[in-house]
From TrEMBL:
Belongs to the FAX family. Coiled coil: none annotated. It comes from Daphnia magna. It holds the Pfam family GST_C_6. This is Failed axon connections. Residues 74-167 form the Thioredoxin-like fold domain. SUPFAM superfamilies: GST C-terminal domain-like (SSF47616), Thioredoxin-like (SSF52833). InterPro entries: FAX/IsoI-like, Glutathione-S-Trfase_C_sf, Glutathione_S-Trfase, Metaxin_GST, Mito_Protein_Transport_Metaxin, Thioredoxin-like_fold, Thioredoxin-like_sf.
Amino acid sequence: MLEQAIESLTAIWKNERGLIVASTGVAASLYFLASKIYAVHEQSQLRKKWNSAPKDVVILHQLPRGKFTPSISPFPLKLETYLRMAGIRYENDFTEPKSLENKTPWITLNGEDVADSQICLELLADKFQKDFSCHLSPEEKATARAFQIMAEDHFYWTGVLWRWVYTKGKTLRQIHATFAPPLSLKIPLVCRRMKSQAIGQGLGRHAEKDVIEMGIKDLRAMSHYLGNKSYFMGEEPTELDCAMFGMLAQLVWNMPGSPFERLLNNFD
């Protein structure tokens, strides 16, 4: 009799447990579906807002503001500097800083989305006839391109490694205007992702002291070329200056305690 009772109770428990598990699974599925529907609705509302912008007004999608600079990333700062220099009307959007290509910044112009700061800049220069480098000779344009690539594809990664790998994102709370607890929880994930990207790029494979030395050599090359000129390519600003400002502003205001900041304060 006791064995039968135990078996009966076990059967009831198994049945009830199955119902509980099934109910939990249904609830989780419904929550996931509702979240997806809400996200689609929000995206649809944002899309309507962006597409309703006046003709030829650029919607600049970028990261939220920094504490000391308009952006803690050099690329949004580069593009916004160009928009201001060119006098092109624009509106900022901080709700969707990453494009479908996972790039920041990106723009929406007359309903069309364009990602990558350089692609955006070149498109705008062509559309609005705001090419500030048109007076440069072919040789000068080649020099400007070489310096920009050095800054954005080499020196940039020394800054990435300093901020996200060597200091593990600890300086972010000092430079981010709206640093909040949820953001701090994401930092370890971002650090791992940026380390992986730096390894893929190549600089992340080197020792820290070697990376810092490479960055210092880049900065000295920039300084020697700039010399006493008002701008990198002469006495008038070009698109290169937008890129250089975006990059150099990071080490001036957004890399507290870095060897690059110390070098800047003691440049010879």
